[in-house]
TrEMBL record:
The lineage of its organism: Bacteria, Bacillati, Actinomycetota, Actinomycetes, Kitasatosporales. CDD domains: LuxR_C_like. This is LuxR family transcriptional regulator. It comes from the Bacteria. PANTHER family: HTH-TYPE TRANSCRIPTIONAL REGULATOR TRMBL2 (PTHR34293).
Amino acid sequence: MERLGVPPDELARARDTLHGMGLLSATGAGGPLVPVHPELAEAVVVAPLERDIHEHERRIAHVRGQLHALLPVYLDSAPSPHPPDGTRTIHDPEEVRRQLAAAARRCRDEAVMIQPNGGRDTDAVRHTREWSLALLRRGVRMRVVHQHAERASLATRAFVCQAAEAGAEVRTSAEVCEYVVVFDRSVAFVPQAPEDGTDGGAAMVTNATVADFMHRRFEDVWVLAQPFDPREAQYEKVVDELNRTVLRLMAAGLKDEVIARRLAISTRTCRRYMKAAMAELGAVSRFQAGARAAQVGLLGAPERQGRPGTASV
C-alpha cells in the first residue's frame, strides 16, 4: 500500500467495489483475492439483472395486453361527452381513429364514405381500410366514392379489388367534397379545418338529423359517379366527364392550379386536358373555350348513372 501511495481506507473501498462487480474473487477461505476476466464477471453479475428486466418486460406486456383487450368494451359502452348540439370536435388524430373504430363496430346496416385524393397520412388510410374490411366481414353494406384520379393508383386499385370481393360498392367522380363517412345515417365524421399548419382532427356528428342530411348528400354524389372496376383503369369511361369538369371550372375563372387540386390531378395533366378541350372547340382562349362549351351544352350536369342503392362493383 505504501508503494502505491494510496491510503488504506481508499484502497479498501476500491477492493470492495471491484469485488462487488465480480472483478475480484477469493481463491479460498481466507485466501488472497485474484482478478477475474471481465467477460466472466459480466456473465455472473449482469445475467441476474437481465433476467429481472426480461421478467418486468413480460409483466408489462401482459398488463398492456389485458388493458388493450378492454378498449373495445370501453369504447362501445362508455357514454361519449357529446355537446347538446350533437357535434364533438376532436383535435387528436389518434382519438379520431379510436372514435371511428368504435362507430364502425356499432354500425349494423350501412356505411358510406367519400374519399378524396391526397391530404391524408398513411396511418389514417391504413386505419380506414382496416375498419372498412372489418365492416364488410360482418356483412355491413359499404359504398365508397373516390375521385377519378384514383383509377391510376395501383395501391388504391389493389385495395378496392380486395374490398369489392368482400362486398363493397365503389364508384369514382371527377370532383368530390372533403372526406366524409356516415354510419347508419346516425353518426358522421368530417375533417377539421387545419389550424396552425396541423391537421388530423375531425368533427364527430351524432345529431341524427344532420347525419341523415349528410347521407342524402352522399346519395347525390353517388348517383352521378361512375362505377369503378378495380381490375381496369377504365379511363375511357371518365375522360368525357373530366373534360366537362375542366371546361366548367375554366369558365368559372379558376386558375390552373386550383382546378388541378380540385380534380386531384397534376397541374401538367390539367393543362393537357385544357389544351385538348380548347383544340376540340377551336378556341384560342380560356374565355372563348368556356363560351363555346356553354353554347354546345357541354357545361351541363352529367347524365345520372343510376339510382341510389344501385350495385356498382
